[in-house]
């Protein structure tokens, strides 16, 4: 099968700490980042996520994340389609970002802020995906700018791979690499990210 499992995966439907923040988790260092930018509803929207990630320095010396990448990061974990994320989703995203940054940095050895299209294939395989050459070529064409892929584009690619793989996996109950989608279901899966 082409899709991997990944560390830090939480069961679907596990809620975040919503509504007026709820009770703060005891001594969780991520709580400070979250509450510093979360709105009064105790949730983070894409603009707040962009501010949080920029101020946290998680992108390191790479460019800050674009608003579009922040939107797809939230959409990947937005199980209630609110367009926002709670604290548990924020922690799950943080873990995923750290993993993706480690993989990206392996291939950006000169710390130029870019990997090339060949290295993208290695990164994708490093994340556990076994894509055929045609699918990998589609990714390369989508995220390649003048032969280079930025960290922001790499994260957008990783988010979409994970979200679409999750959507497919939920429908592939026999785990045989095949499933059936209704048209509206297909649109919801693909348009939300």
* Sheet with most strands: 2 strands, antiparallel
Structural class: mainly alpha
- The SSE order reads HHHHEHHEHH
**Number of strand elements:** 2
Low-confidence stretches: 5-21
| Strand arrangement across the biggest beta sheet | 1-2
Number of helical runs?
Answer: 8
Radius of gyration: 17 Å
Write down the overall geometry: globular
Helix content: 40-55%
> What is the percentage of strand-forming residues?
under 5%
Write the layout of secondary structure elements.
Blueprint: H1 30-37, H2 46-56, H3 67-77, H4 87-107, E1 114-116, H5 117-126, H6 133-143, E2 148-150, H7 151-171, H8 183-191
Antiparallel strand pairs: 1-2
Helix pairs in contact: 1-2, 2-3, 3-7, 4-5, 4-7
State the gist of this model.
This protein is mainly α and 193 residues long. The chain is 53% helix and 3% strand. A two-stranded antiparallel sheet has the order 1-2.
Describe this structure in words.
The protein contains eight helices and two strands, in the order H-H-H-H-E-H-H-E-H-H. The protein is mainly alpha-helical and 193 residues long. The protein has a two-stranded antiparallel sheet with strand order 1-2. The longest helix is centred in the middle third of the chain and has 21 residues, at 87-107. The chain is globular, with a radius of gyration of 17 Å. It starts with 29 loop residues before the first helix and ends with a helix.
Features of the shown structure:
193 residues; mainly alpha
């Amino acid at each position: 099968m082409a899709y991997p499992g990944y560390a830090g995966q939480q069961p679907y439907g596990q809620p975040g700490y919503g509504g007026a923040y709820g009770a703060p988790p005891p001594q969780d260092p991520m709580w400070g980042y979250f509450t510093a930018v979360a709105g009064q509803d105790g949730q983070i929207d894409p603009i707040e996520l962009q501010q949080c990630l920029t101020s946290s320095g998680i992108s390191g010396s790479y460019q800050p994340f674009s608003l579009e990448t922040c939107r797809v990061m939230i959409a990947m974990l937005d199980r209630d389609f609110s367009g926002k994320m709670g604290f548990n989703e924020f922690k799950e995203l943080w873990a995923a970002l750290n993993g993706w940054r480690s993989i990206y940095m392996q291939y950006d050895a000169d710390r130029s802020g870019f990997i090339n299209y060949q290295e993208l294939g290695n990164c994708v395989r490093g994340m556990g995906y076994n894509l055929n050459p045609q699918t990998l070529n589609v990714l390369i064409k989508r995220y390649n700018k003048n032969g280079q892929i930025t960290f922001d584009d790499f994260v957008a690619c990783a988010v979409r791979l994970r979200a679409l793989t999750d959507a497919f996996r939920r429908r592939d109950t026999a785990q045989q690499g095949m499933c059936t989608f209704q048209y509206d279901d297909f649109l919801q899966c693909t348009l939300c990210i």
